[in-house]
Amino acid sequence: MEKVMKLASERPVVIFSKSSCCMCHTIKTLFYEFGASPAVYELDEMPRGRELEQGLLRLGCSPSVPAVFIGGDLVGGANEVMSLHLNRSLVPMLRRVGALWV
């Protein structure tokens, strides 16, 4: 869990993902289309990805991916991110942490 939080605080937007996960792909695409450049950690391609996945589960991420952190804070998974987007809260949140310039 400590390693997850360290990685999550290194960039304005961090996404923990798996390369085979369609919802992960959808969430990453959403952020890229906004013009954000999230740090993306593909857990299934990392030597210690399983440990990070266990840390995400301990933080309450269920399923463990996608897990989105904005400004070092856990936002949640696909449902939470899409809810923020639909109620027009996501873009202002991204601007506040410096992930978007415009």
UniProtKB/TrEMBL annotation:
<dbReference type="InterPro" id="IPR014025">
    <property type="entry name" value="Glutaredoxin_subgr"/>
</dbReference>
<dbReference type="InterPro" id="IPR036249">
    <property type="entry name" value="Thioredoxin-like_sf"/>
</dbReference>
<dbReference type="InterPro" id="IPR002109">
    <property type="entry name" value="Glutaredoxin"/>
</dbReference>
<keyword id="KW-0676">Redox-active center</keyword>
<comment type="similarity">
    <text>Belongs to the glutaredoxin family. CC-type subfamily.</text>
</comment>
<dbReference type="GO" id="GO:0005737">
    <property type="term" value="C:cytoplasm"/>
</dbReference>
<dbReference type="InterPro" id="IPR011905">
    <property type="entry name" value="GlrX-like_pln_2"/>
</dbReference>
<keyword id="KW-0963">Cytoplasm</keyword>
<feature type="domain" description="Glutaredoxin">
    <location>
        <begin position="13"/>
        <end position="75"/>
    </location>
</feature>
<dbReference type="Pfam" id="PF00462">
    <property type="entry name" value="Glutaredoxin"/>
</dbReference>
<protein>
    <submittedName>
        <fullName>Monothiol glutaredoxin-S2</fullName>
    </submittedName>
</protein>
